[in-house]
Request: fold
Amino acid sequence: SDYSQEPPRHPCLQINSKEPFNAEPPRSALVSSYVTRVDLFYKRNHGPIPVVDDIERYCFDISGLIQTPKKLYMRDVRMLPKYNVTAILQCAGNRRTAMSKTRKVRGVGWDVSAIGNAVWGGAKLADVLELVGIPKLTSRTQSGGKHVEFVSIDKCKEENGGPYKASIPLIQATNPEADVLLAYEMNGEPLNRDHGYPLRVIVPGVIGARSVKWLDSINILAEECQGFFMQKDYKMFPPSVDWDNINWSTRRPQMDFPVQSVICSLEDVQSIKPGKITISGYAASGGGRGIERVDVSIDGGKTWLEASRSQKTGIPYISDHESSDKWAWVLFEITVDIPHSTEIVAKAVDSAANVQPENVQDIWNLRADANFFMLQNHQFIFM
Ligand code: MTE
Ligand code: MO
Reply:
C-alpha cells in the first residue's frame, strides 16, 4: 500500500498505528471544548488516505435494487437542503486498552479518546435516496428488510485490497429523523482528507465503523453488506467465546453503541493531594438516547454524587433553532473534596435507564468492542 500521500497531522495526537494512521488526542482535549477540534479529532483508518483532486468530476453511483440507477455529483448533493447535525463519532474499540488489562484482546489499542463531538454539515441520506425514487419513511412505507450499502474509495487489507464498506437498514436510511447524512462539512469547514473528503456518511448514534468515509458508491441490497467489517469484525460475543471457537455467523453486526462515561480530567492512575478538585469528562449513549444523569463516586462506588451536565456552549456555525442534542455528548463536571486515599469512578444513566455495567470482566469479549463498563477510571490517590 502507498502511504506517500498522507495529510499533515497535529503533533499532539497519540499515535496507535502509523500505517494505517490511527491516533487519538490526549484526554484533556476532549473536555476543553464541547465541539472537538478537527485537528484533534481521533483518526481511524484501515488503509492509505485516498486522494481526490478533481472535485468537479467526483461522483458516486446509486444502484442495486432500484428502478433507475443514478450517478450523483457534488453539485447534486449540495442542491439538496443542508443540515447541520451535532453528533459524536465513536470507534467501537474506544477504551479497548482497559479491557485488555483483564484478558488479552486483539485490535488497535485505544485509550478513552477514540470519540469526538462534531457538527456535520451535509444532505440527509433520506433526501438523496428520494432522488432515485426511494420514498421517505412514513408509517405506511415498507422497507422489505432491505439494506443500504456504502462503498468507499480507499483500499484495505481486510478486504484483500478492496474498498472499505458497511451497510445500515433501509428503514433507518430513509427516516429523516434518524439524521443519517452524506456530509461534506465538519465543524463548518469542508471535510479534510483524514475525515473523508469530499463526502462521507454519518450515521448518528451508531458505532463509527458504519460511517463510511470517501464515498464511492451506494447499493440497495436485499441483505446486509457482506464486507469484512460487517461480518468478521464489530460483533459482540459472550466471554465464553474465544478465537478457537468463534462462529461469526451467529451474531448480528453491532450498530448502536451503549451508554458510556469517562473522566477526562485525570489519568487512570494518578496521585493528587487531598482537597478540592474538579472532575470532568464526557458521557454519551447510542441510538439517540440522551444522558439522564452522570454520577461520580469518590469512595470507589459506595456512595454517589450527581455531576452537573452541559451541552452546546456557543457553536458559531449552527443556529439555535436547528440544533438538537440527541446525537451529541454531554460534558459533566463536579467539584469534590478528596479527604484521603481513594478511588474515583463515574457512571452514566441514559434516557432509557440503561446504566453502565459494574465491572469489565462481565462484558469482556474477544475483540474488546463495546468496551463500555462502569468502573472506568480507577484513580488511586496516594497521600
Ligand atoms: N471509512 C473508510 N472508507 N475507511 C475506514 O477505514 N473507518 C471506520 C469509519 N469509516 C473507515 C471508514 C471506523 S472503524 C471509524 S471508527 C470511523 O470511520 C472513524 O472516523 P474518523 O477517522 O473520521 O474519526
Ligand atoms: Mo472504529
Observations:
- The first helix runs from residue 27 to 31.
- Helices lie at 27-31, 74-79, 96-100, 125-130, 170-173, 228-231, 360-363.
- The chain has a mean pLDDT of 87.
